[in-house]
C-alpha cells in the first residue's frame, strides 16, 4: 500500500499553534534526507539497545521456569503437574489484569504536570524492571507451592507495563513506516532470551548444592540479580518523551516532531476523554487485532515455556535438553530479522503473518506425524521459526503495533494496544492450562492439534483484517478522487483520528 497521507489542516487562528504547525507541516514524509537518517541513527542508538535488553530480561524471567522445571523445581516444592500449569496460568492472569491500567498510566503521563514527573518513562520502566527482578530472585527462595503461586502473580503484575509502554514510546520517535523494523528488533529479544536461557540454565545448573541450594534455585536467583543490576543502569539510559530529552538539540527536536506530525498524531497534544476510550472499544478492527494476537499468543507462550520439556520428552537427558533449546531459538531470531527486513522491503504485513503461521503449522504437523526424535526435533525448528517470526511481524506490524500504527488518537491508541494484549494473553492462559503434563506421555499430541487450530484461526483473522483495511483504503481514495473530502478544522481532525478520510491503514 502507499505511504500514509498527511492530514490537511484548516487555518489555525492560534498564533502559537500556527507557528508550531507551520514548521512541522513543512516536512514531507516521503523525502528523507541525510539529516533525517542521522537523526534516526541517533534515536536508534539511544532507544533500541537498552529497551531490547529490558525485554530480553523480561522474557527470560517469565520463561526460565520451564528450565527450572526439568532441573527439579516441581519435585522439590511438591508441586503436582496440574498445579505447575496453574502457576504458569497465574502469571498471565496477573499480566493481563494489570495490562490496561499500566499502559493507560504511560499515556496519562503525557498530559500531566510536573507533580507526576516521577512517573516519567525514564523512571517508570526501570522501576518495573527492578520490581520484577526482585520477584524473579524470590522465585528461587520459595519453599512450597503457595509461595510459587504468589510470586508468579507478582511477576506477571510487575512485567505487565513493559511491552506496551515501549511500543507506545516508539510511536513518539518513529514514523509508522519506520516503526515495524525497530519493534521487530526489540521483539527479537524474546527469541534471544530462549537461546540464552538454555545456555544459562545449563551453566547455572552446575551450581547444584552451592550454598545449600539446588541448581533450579540458582537459575532464578542469578538471572533475577542480573535483571536488578541492569534496571539500575537503565535509569540512566531509558529515554523520556522527545519534548524533554537532553540528547536532542532544539533543531533535532523540531525536526523529529515535524516528521511525526506529517505521519500521525503522535506529536499532538490531546486531553484525555472517555469518548476516545469508547472509540477503541467500539472499533471492530481493534477487536480484530486482539483476536489475532490471541491465536498467536497461545503458540508463543506454550512453545517458549514448554520447549525444554518437549525436547526432554524426545529422549534427551536434562542437560542436553537445556542446550538443545538453543538452536531453535537462534533460528527464530534469524527468522525475526529476515521477516522484518522482508516486510520493510515489500511493504507487506498480513500476508507475511499468514505465511509464518503456515510454517508453524508445518512444524506441528511434523511433531504429530513423525516417530523419531531427530525428525521431531526438525519439527521443533519449524514451529519455533514460524511462531516467533509471526509474532514479531504482528507485534511490530500487527496487533501491538498494528494498533499503534493504524489507530490515530493517543488515548484510543493506548487503550487499543492494551486491550489487544489483554485479549491476546487469554490465549496464553488457555495454552498453559491445555499443555498438561498428562499429555506429555503422548508427546503433547492433543495440545499440538489445538495449536494448529489456533494458528488456523489466526490466518482467518489476519485475512479478514487485510481485506477490511484494504477495502477501506480504496473507498477513501475514491472519495478523495470524487472531491467528497470535506475540509474540517484541526480539532475535528484530532477527534476523527483514523476515521478521517485522509487516513490510510498500513496493511
Automatic annotation (TrEMBL):
A cellular component term from Gene Ontology for this protein is: membrane
- Which residue ranges does the record assign to the Major facilitator superfamily (MFS) profile domain? 47-475
Q: Where are the transmembrane segments?
A: 45-63, 83-102, 123-142, 154-175, 182-204, 216-238, 285-306, 326-344, 351-370, 382-402, 414-435, 447-467
Its predominant location is membrane
Give a GO molecular function annotation for the protein: transmembrane transporter activity
Keyword check for Thylakoid = no
Database matches in SUPFAM superfamilies = MFS general substrate transporter (SSF103473)
Map out region (Disordered) in residue numbers.
1-29
Q: What is this protein called?
A: Major facilitator superfamily domain-containing protein
Origin organism is Lactarius akahatsu
Species lineage, top-down?
Eukaryota, Fungi, Dikarya, Basidiomycota, Agaricomycotina
Amino acid at each position: 500500500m502507499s505511504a500514509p497521507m498527511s492530514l490537511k489542516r484548516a487555518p489555525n487562528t492560534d498564533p502559537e499553534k500556527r507557528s508550531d504547525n507551520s514548521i512541522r507541516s513543512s516536512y514531507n514524509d516521503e523525502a528523507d534526507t541525510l539529516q533525517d537518517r542521522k537523526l534516526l541513527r541517533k534515536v536508534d542508538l539511544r532507544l533500541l539497545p537498552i529497551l531490547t535488553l529490558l525485554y530480553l530480561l523480561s522474557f527470560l524471567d517469565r520463561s526460565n521456569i520451564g528450565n527450572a522445571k526439568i532441573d527439579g523445581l516441581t519435585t522439590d516444592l511438591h508441586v503436582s503437574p496440574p498445579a505447575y500449569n496453574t502457576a504458569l496460568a497465574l502469571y498471565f492472569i496477573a499480566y493481563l489484569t494489570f495490562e490496561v491500567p499500566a499502559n493507560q498510566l504511560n499515556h496519562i503521563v503525557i498530559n500531566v504536570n510536573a507533580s507526576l514527573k516521577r512517573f516519567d518513562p525514564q523512571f517508570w520502566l526501570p522501576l518495573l524492571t527492578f520490581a520484577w527482578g526482585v520477584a524473579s530472585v524470590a522465585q528461587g527462595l520459595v519453599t512450597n507451592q503457595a509461595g510459587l503461586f504468589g510470586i508468579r502473580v507478582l511477576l506477571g503484575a510487575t512485567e505487565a507495563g513493559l511491552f506496551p509502554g515501549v511500543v507506545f514510546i516508539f510511536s513518539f520517535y518513529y514514523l509508522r513506516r519506520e516503526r515495524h523494523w525497530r519493534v521487530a528488533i526489540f521483539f527479537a529479544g524474546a527469541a534471544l532470551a530462549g537461546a540464552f536461557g538454555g545456555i544459562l540454565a545449563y551453566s547455572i545448573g552446575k551450581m547444584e548444592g552451592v550454598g545449600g541450594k539446588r541448581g533450579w534455585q540458582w537459575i532464578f536467583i542469578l538471572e533475577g540479580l542480573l535483571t536488578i543490576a541492569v534496571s539500575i543502569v537503565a535509569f540512566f539510559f531509558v529515554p523520556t518523551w522527545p519534548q524533554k530529552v537532553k540528547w536532542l538539540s532544539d533543531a533535532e527536536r523540531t525536526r523529529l516532531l515535524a516528521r511525526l506530525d506529517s505521519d500521525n498524531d503522535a506529536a499532538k497534544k490531546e486531553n484525555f476523554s472517555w469518548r476516545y476510550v469508547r472509540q477503541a472499544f467500539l472499533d471492530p478492527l481493534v477487536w480484530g487485532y486482539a483476536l489475532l494476537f490471541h491465536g498467536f499468543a497461545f503458540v508463543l507462550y506454550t512453545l517458549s515455556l514448554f520447549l525444554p520439556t518437549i525436547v526432554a520428552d524426545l529422549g534427551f537427558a536434562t542437560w542436553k535438553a537445556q542446550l538443545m533449546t538453543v538452536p531453535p531459538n537462534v533460528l527464530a531470531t534469524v527468522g525475526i530479522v529476515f521477516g522484518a527486513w522482508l516486510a520493510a522491503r515489500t511493504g507487506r504485513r498480513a500476508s507475511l503473518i499468514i505465511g509464518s503461521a503456515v510454517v508453524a503449522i508445518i512444524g506441528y504437523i511434523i511433531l504429530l506425524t513423525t516417530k523419531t526424535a531427530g525428525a521431531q526435533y526438525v519439527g521443533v525448528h519449524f514451529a519455533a521459526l514460524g511462531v516467533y517470526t509471526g509474532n514479531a511481524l504482528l507485534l511490530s506490524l500487527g496487533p501491538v503495533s498494528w494498533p499503534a500504527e493504524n489507530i490515530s488518537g493517543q488515548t484510543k491508541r493506548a487503550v487499543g494496544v492494551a486491550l489487544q494484549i489483554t485479549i491476546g494473553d487469554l490465549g496464553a492462559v488457555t495454552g498453559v492450562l491445555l499443555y498438561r503434563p498428562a499429555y506429555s506421555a503422548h508427546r503433547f499430541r492433543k495440545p499440538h492439534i489445538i495449536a494448529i487450530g489456533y494458528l488456523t484461526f489466526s490466518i482467518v483473522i489476519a485475512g479478514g483484517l487485510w481485506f477490511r483495511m484494504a477495502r477501506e483504503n480504496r473507498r477513501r481514495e475514491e472519495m478523495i478522487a470524487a472531491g467528497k473530502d470535506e475540509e474540517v478544522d484541526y480539532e475535528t481532525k484530532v477527534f476523527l483520528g483514523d476515521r478521517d478520510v485522509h487516513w490510510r491503514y498500513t496493511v
